[in-house]
Design goal:
single chain, 198 residues, alpha/beta, Rossmann fold, 6-stranded mixed sheet, 10 strands, globular
């Protein structure tokens, strides 16, 4: 059974929620879980910087006594890295970029029985369909989970965007009516997360 823990992003703005999320991610993995940080949604030149930042901040978010072994994911050795990891954390960023990389792998099989944590674009990628704040439209995810996902729901995400603030009701309605209308929608506010086992 693979455990998916999907959050909506914006956790740096909500530390108590971030702590609950990380506690769920590492639950039952022991004191030294192996965490693979995947920044495929970011520009390549930012991976090492992001990795260093997240590793440095981890002690502030993880439960007391948990001391993970962190590793930075790279596409050319991703399958081998996943095999060694207890949890794979797919961070947010550019939806198109993340889908480009993840489509190169048979993800549900290579990370079977692992804990998959995802944030924002990472959660989008795992869903069947999603509404993206960057492109302000519905898109297809990998379809690993039979759900629709809307990250950053009702937040101020993109408030300085020249297109103006996001109309969240319209976004929700567009996703609701997009493609398979029978799928459940997870429109989560920043800091919120959902656990799905599959």
């Amino acid at each position: 059974m693979t455990k998916y823990v999907l959050n909506s992003g914006g956790q740096r703005n909500n530390i108590p929620s971030a702590k609950r999320f990380f506690a769920e991610v590492v639950k039952d993995l022991g004191e030294r879980p192996r965490i693979l940080y995947c920044f495929f949604a970011q520009k390549r030149e930012e991976w090492e910087t992001k990795f260093a930042e997240y590793v440095a901040n981890a002690p502030n978010l993880l439960p007391e006594g948990i001391q993970p072994v962190f590793e930075l994911a790279f596409p050319e050795i991703f399958i081998e890295q996943v095999k060694k990891a207890d949890t794979i954390f797919i961070h947010g960023g550019d939806d198109h970029l993340l889908l480009y990389w993840l489509k190169q792998f048979d993800t549900p099989n290579i990370w079977k029985d692992k804990v998959i944590a995802a944030s924002s674009a990472g959660s989008h990628a795992l869903a069947k369909h999603f509404w993206t704040c960057d492109w302000r439209k519905c898109m297809d995810g990998l379809g690993i989970l039979p759900i629709k996902f809307l990250a950053h729901f009702e937040s101020e995400y993109g408030k300085d965007d020249p297109r103006g603030p996001i109309d969240w009701k319209r976004a929700y309605d567009e996703l609701k009516n997009f493609s398979d209308t029978t799928l459940p929608i997870h429109a989560l506010k920043e800091g919120e997360y959902v656990v799905i086992e599959k």
